[in-house]
Write a structure and sequence with these properties.
Length: about 500
């Protein structure tokens, strides 16, 4: 019997494969990376140090996703406190907001001006906001937008906030406004808000694998193979052709270990391949659809991990760097995620994150230049001394974030319509697969729904509704509170 192929061994691809092998063993995962599964959720291990590509908090409103994590790792999951701050104007601001510290840092005059700006925005909002700047200004006022959103967001995306779609703000910080943030800050100050699970940006604790997120996906891959499935490393899908007579997909892939090209047949395909690449890989895609896919853009990412003497400079999971004087966008402290990420108690490991486009000056800089830049900027911010840096490591991550510019949704709709009308037995899931800025748990849920569709033989579940369902995305529903699984059931 011809099997099922999952293209990509990240959270979505491995979740799909693991759910499938519960029912049938004829599942193959094709993962392009020769060493690591997990995609952007992998954990790099060098010289005993473990560091992530970005930070990955294991938190979800979906019981099905949380149960999956616990089934895979069980006691290997730690419950970790969330601590993060914002660095702006030479000062650190707790995030979520601490009312007293924020007012002290801003000063009474600036705080009053921010309040006036907020009231003005509430009285005279932009109707139907289309850009990130308009959406956030409506929620916080223009002054707080410029302090706490503008610089960091433009570092992440490499474009003006007036060019970024409001979809990104609505998806990432939905239901959070100045009123909600201040209410949360007051309750925290009074000790009345030990856990805030209604707004995901304000959670205060989360699960985390003791050796990093890659540990989750390495174990998932092992269990897939244990159950009879196959996870083939160093195997990059290069072309897909549908045989309408045999009702089979012929998938060609390059095997970097064997040094040749192979073909596998599949009755069903679940793809996490970046949408732009998929449109080039599928045979027979109309020219206008390929041209549309070419317009989709991605933001790339560099992590510079510095092994450094632990001077207890900060114990945050990460710090957002809103200061325009430095290029770094965020700084992780991997020891704060889990002490087991660092091999020596006298050391810690900081991950300085630089957002870029593949091929630009940052991307093309040598590892030595990037390590020197990170070392200088760490000192400039006041979080470390060059003399304490023992060693540096650089990881470049292409296609880390699908770009939400003003036109992206129209492009995605054109591609989606063609796929749904012309590619039977093919489902696309995950962050880059759907060109949606999914969190890890959202990517997993799209995979779970795709598997439900595959096993049922129809498309009862619309995977595109996962991020559009406000009950699931941001707020615990009554059904979730009563113990039912949070699975979107809307169909397109």
């Amino acid at each position: 019997m011809t099997g099922i192929v999952c293209i990509g061994g990240g959270p979505a691809g491995l979740t799909a494969a693991y759910e499938l092998v519960r029912h049938r063993p004829d599942v193959t995962v094709l993962e392009a990376d020769p060493l690591y599964v997990g995609g952007i959720s992998r954990t790099i291990q060098v010289d005993g140090f473990c560091f992530d590509i970005g930070g990955h908090r294991f938190f979800s409103k979906s019981r099905e996703v949380v149960d999956f994590w616990k089934e895979i790792l069980g006691s290997q999951l730690l419950m970790r406190p969330r601590k993060s701050r914002i660095f702006y104007g030479g000062k650190f601001y707790p995030y979520p907001l601490d009312l007293k510290a924020t007012l002290c840092n801003l000063g009474m005059i600036e705080s009053a001006l921010c309040g006036i700006s907020y009231l003005y925005a509430r009285c005279f909002p932009t109707r139907n906001p289309k850009t990130f700047e308009e959406w956030v200004t409506n929620q916080f006022g223009s002054r707080l937008f410029s302090i706490f959103f503008k610089t960091y967001t433009e570092k992440v995306w490499g474009m003006s906030c007036s060019e970024i779609s409001a979809d990104w703000a609505a998806q990432r910080i939905k239901n959070l406004s100045l009123f909600e943030a201040l209410k949360n800050a007051v309750m925290r100050s009074l000790g009345l808000n030990k856990k805030n699970n209604k707004i995901k940006t304000l959670i205060e604790e989360f699960l985390y694998p003791r050796k990093g997120p890659g540990m989750m996906w390495e174990e998932a891959a092992r269990k897939i193979e244990e159950k009879g499935g196959h996870v083939q490393m160093g195997c990059k899908a290069t072309s897909l052709a549908y045989d309408a007579v045999a009702k089979l997909w012929n998938i060609e892939y390059s095997d970097s270990k064997a040094g040749n090209t192979k073909t596998i047949q599949a009755s069903q395909v679940i793809s996490t391949m970046p949408l732009r690449e998929l449109m080039h890989a599928i045979k027979g895609v109309p020219a206008h659809v390929v041209e549309t896919a070419e317009k989709l853009r991605y933001r790339d990412f560099i992590t510079v991990a510095l092994a450094i003497t632990d001077r207890s400079k900060f114990d945050d999971n990460w710090i957002y760097i809103h200061s325009p004087e430095v290029k770094v966008g965020r700084i992780q402290n991997f020891k704060s995620w889990s002490p087991e990420m660092v091999p020596d108690d006298a050391l810690t490991c900081y991950g300085l994150e630089y957002f870029c486009f593949e091929g630009d000056g940052l991307w093309n800089a040598s590892d030595e230049e990037l390590i020197a830049l990170a070392t200088r900027e760490l000192e400039q911010i006041g979080l470390g001394s060059p003399s304490d840096v023992r060693k540096g490591y650089v990881v470049r991550q292409p296609k880390a974030y699908p770009v939400y510019d003003q036109d992206y949704q129209g492009y995605v709709d054109i591609i989606r319509d063609w796929l749904e009308g012309s590619c039977p037995g093919l489902q696309i899931v995950g962050r880059n697969g759907m060109h949606k800025y999914n969190n890890q748990d959202h990517s997993m849920m799209t995979a779970m729904l795709a598997v439900k569709n595959l096993l049922a033989g129809d498309k009862k579940y619309d995977v595109w509704c996962v991020n559009q369902d406000a009950e699931y995305h941001e707020e615990e529903s009554r059904s979730g509170a009563s113990g039912e699984r949070l699975v979107p059931t809307a169909v397109r």
